[in-house]
Amino acid sequence: MVRQPSINAQNRAPLSTERIIETALRIVDGQGLARLTMRRLGDALEVEAMAIYHHLPRGKEQLLDGLVAHVASVPADTGAAARESWRDVLRAWAADYRTRLLAHAGVLPLVVTRRNPAALTTTVASLREVLRRGGVAEDAAAVAAHTLLGYVIGHAALEARDTAEDGADRAIDWEARFTAGLDLVIGGVR
């Protein structure tokens, strides 16, 4: 089947890796990760699925890595670290990061399971820089950065599942629980 160009084809943005990733993210957010196929993605982009491979030669593997990078690569504002308390900068980053992960909860399983260290390298490096600027020793900053990243990702994963992992028979106030845990993590940094 040869796809005929639609009337809107002249008005849409050209196909690019960014446009492909953003469209895939909309599919995952709206329909779930299991519904993301190259054919469905091609339909949403109004192109043949094979056209996607021009931008993503490794196909779906590269697409999934791109989703992780798009959602999970969120560096801390190292410039703010010079103006504000490093603890406040990390709290703000953690709250924003949690919000982003929850907004794209369908990608969370990929963030947790995919072997894509490049997707998180920039984020970890920026967290370490905030900590170093705050006077935290290099070794402690490295441990703290990974611990903070792991805490936020893990909490978001539990929250997205609405897991009552403590066996409580009452509703969990996820915001209060996140803040309390974040205070423990950041408060333990020396």
UniProtKB/TrEMBL annotation:
Domain of life per record: Bacteria
All copies of domain HTH tetR-type, residue ranges: 20-65
UniProt keywords, alphabetically: DNA-binding, Transcription, Transcription regulation
Annotated organism of origin: Actinomadura meridiana
Residue ranges annotated for the Tetracycline repressor TetR C-terminal domain, each copy included: 83-167
Record's protein name: TetR family transcriptional regulator
Lineage per the UniProt record: Bacteria, Bacillati, Actinomycetota, Actinomycetes, Streptosporangiales
UniProt cross-references to SUPFAM superfamilies, sorted A to Z: Homeodomain-like, Tetracyclin repressor-like, C-terminal domain
